[in-house]
Write a structure and sequence with these properties.
With about 625 residues, the chain is α/β, with parallel strands linked by helices. Helices cover about 65% and strands about 10% of the residues. It is built from 22 helices and 12 strands. It has helices at about 1-10, 20-25, 30-50, 55-65, 80, 85-135, 135-140, 145-185, 190-235, 240-245, 245-300, 305-345, 405-415, 435-440, 460-465, 470-480, 485-490, 505-520, 535-550, 585-590, 595-605, 610-620, and strands spanning about 370-375, 380-390, 395-400, 420-425, 430, 445, 455, 495-500, 525-530, 555-560, 570-575, 580-585. A 6-stranded mixed sheet has the order 6-9-10-3-11-12. The chain has a 4-stranded antiparallel sheet with strand order 2-1-4-5, with helices on one face. A hairpin with a 2-residue loop joins strand 11 (about 570-575) and strand 12 (about 580-585). The longest helix has about 55 residues, at about 245-300. The chain is elongated and about 120 Å long.
Length: about 625
């Protein structure tokens, strides 16, 4: 299927595909439909070419009573050639037949073209989303979500229009132009040269015009993305905006971004609006020359009125597809810009690599070792330096320290949201890079500072940790997480729809659902990243009780600023500037009277007594 086609293209090294290459790749699965479209186009084109000939028969052979063209000699001797009324009726029926067949072909062309367009857009959206799901967190730290969404929607729609309408239309127009040129040369070769003579000038104009339109379109799409980002940020932070009374500021931001979009769009429109008048004037000059010269030939008897009428009809039809192709330069320019934006996403290489022979870890025990690990964010200062750590199977490790000290980085490296810059991480004796990414992460459960609640039912949110979990498993997990009671007080219990981001739930309730989600997942490694940081004392007590059930029999990494969360950890490490400043149990760390001792008493509100030596030692470490 299409995503596999894209993977194959990546393997072949064809990373930066062009517009046509990408469109052909998207169209490849729909070859049968394209064959139907092509046959329908041939019929449509042929009927369009044949349409003017009945008029010529009526004018030259019925009204003027001239002999039939040599191509129709096989009709001589029939009733059609001896009775002019019959000839007129046959010509009228032929015109009707051409229109009916052309219309049916047009319907098939239109229907199957739209079908291809919808599926192409669907495939491209899936491919982009598939790729985005596998990018590292680093990508999302550098790119605005609103701009990404704008590309997936608006730019994909542009490519869809190009693939469904423009390419097909360009093929039809090209066939029509070639067919009409042949007939016009057959009718009068010097008139055909008039049409050909003006075409190169139009093409040169269109090519130069396309470059300017593409540049202007790129600006429009850029400004539209910025405007979308401003609106998304304003709506997502509506509570803070109202709290600080900064509605006017946000409206000013939108006004500025919106006006920049308007200015760019009008500039692009000025360029696009020039195309049609220039082409229309060029076509009018060409038609006027043929009409003037043709009238003289008819007067001298060199050309029939019917032949001139047919030629003028073809001339107008000839320039119609030329105009269409010229106008399509706008669409091609827009599609090129859309493709550039799509390829920025598809070519993003911040994917966490997975070895070809990576193995599924199965059920891990949870023995974790950091061996001389260094980690740097791209363009940033070192976060971890020569970091060594051993976490035994089933051990509870607490991590605390100043903000930016590398606490969350340790969790991110274990789950391979990032890879180490130097050194390695072992789980159960194997480098984590030897495991499949999905297999590794299936062994890790997370409870974060702010549990994300998806739009859907409470039950679906709990089961998100393990798709396919039974109703009994969901309810059991909720009871262990202290969530069952408040869930049953909801209007529809586990089938209650919770709003986006769980805005109808309290912070404690969201955390309890997050814990239930981790319980359902039943992972051997559990990472608790500031699970109680945003809760009040009562909610914190409930969540800590729920966490006790969750932590049983698992290797647990607890990251916290609140030291009360670490109280029951088997070992606590204190990080400072990417290094372990000290480690031990809570009692051991308090006895050392160093960094942890200071943090502990700052949080409990007591003021410890320090002698001068201890005070100097603490200040040196802190």
């Amino acid at each position: 299927m299409p995503i596999e086609n894209w993977k194959q293209l990546k393997k072949e090294g064809k990373k930066d595909t062009g517009l046509l290459s990408l469109v052909l790749l998207l169209l490849r699965p729909y070859r049968k439909w394209l064959a139907i479209i092509f046959i329908a186009m041939l019929f449509e084109t042929f009927m369009s070419l044949a349409a003017p000939w009945p008029i010529k028969i009526i004018i030259d052979n019925v009204i003027q009573k001239d002999p039939l063209p040599s191509a129709l000699d096989w009709l001589n001797g029939t009733a059609i050639t001896t009775d002019y009324n019959s000839m007129a009726a046959a010509a009228a029926l032929a015109m009707l037949l051409f229109v009916v067949v052309g219309s049916v072909a047009g319907y098939l062309n239109s229907y199957y073209t739209e079908s291809v367009a919808q599926f192409v857009a669907n495939d491209l959206r899936k491919r982009m989303y598939h790729h985005l799901q596998r990018l590292s967190l680093e990508y999302y730290e550098k790119n605005q979500i609103a701009k990404i969404l704008n590309t997936i929607t608006a730019d994909v729609s542009t490519i869809q229009d190009f693939a469904s309408q423009s390419i097909i239309r360009m093929v039809v127009d090209t066939l029509t132009i070639l067919g009409m040129l042949g007939i016009m040369f057959f009718l009068h070769w010097d008139f055909a040269l008039v049409a050909l003579g003006i075409t190169p000038f139009l093409l040169v104009f269109v090519i130069r015009f396309k470059k300017e339109v593409k540049k202007a379109t790129r600006e429009v799409r850029k400004d539209q993305s910025i405007m979308a980002a401003v609106m998304q940020q304003g709506l997502e932070s509506i509570k803070s905006i109202n709290a600080f009374g900064r509605q006017d500021l946000e409206e000013e931001k939108l006004q500025k971004a919106s006006m920049e979009t308007v200015t760019a769009a009008l500039k692009a429109r000025r360029l696009k609006a020039m195309l049609v008048p220039v082409i229309n004037i060029s076509v009018a000059i060409c038609v006027a020359l043929v009409l003037w010269r043709g009238a003289g030939l008819v007067i001298t008897g060199v050309m029939t009125i019917g032949a001139l009428t047919v030629f003028l009809a073809y001339l107008n039809k000839f320039f119609a597809p030329v105009q269409d192709i010229a106008k399509m330069s706008n669409i091609v320019a827009q599609a090129s810009v859309a493709l550039e934006r799509i390829q920025v996403i598809l070519n993003a290489d911040t994917i966490i690599p997975e070895k070809l022979n990576a193995k599924s870890p199965g059920k891990l025990r949870g023995h974790i070792v950091f061996e001389d690990v260094d980690f740097y964010y791209v363009g940033g200062a070192p976060v971890l330096q020569h970091f060594n750590l051993k976490i035994n199977e089933g051990q509870r490790l607490g991590i605390c320290g100043n903000s930016g000290g590398g606490k969350s980085t340790i969790a991110n490296l274990i789950a391979r949201f990032y890879d180490t810059t130097y050194g390695r991480i072992l789980i159960d004796g194997n480098d984590v890079r030897e495991y499949t990414i999905d297999g590794l992460r299936n062994n890790i459960g997370f409870v974060l500072q702010d549990t994300f609640i998806f739009f859907g039912t409470v039950g679906e949110n709990i089961a998100y940790g393990r798709p396919g979990a039974t109703e009994e498993e969901i309810i059991k997990a909720a009871k262990m997480a202290k969530a069952h009671e408040f869930i049953m007080h909801m209007p529809d219990g586990y089938d209650t729809i919770v709003g986006e981001r769980g805005i109808t739930l309290s912070g404690g309730q969201r955390q309890c659902i997050g814990i239930a989600r981790a319980i359902v997942r039943n992972a051997s490694i559990l990472i608790l990243d500031e699970p109680t940081a945003s809760l009040d004392a009562e909610s914190e007590k409930i969540v800590i009780e729920a966490l006790e059930h969750l932590m049983e029999g698992r290797t647990v990494i607890i990251i916290a600023h609140r030291l009360s969360t670490l109280r029951h950890a088997d070992k606590i490490i204190v990080l400072k500037d990417g290094l372990v400043a000290e480690q031990g149990t809570e009692e051991e760390l308090l006895a050392k009277r160093k960094v942890y001792f200071e943090l502990y008493h700052l949080q409990t509100g007591t003021v410890p007594f320090f002698n001068k030596e201890q005070d100097a030692e603490i200040k040196t470490v802190v």
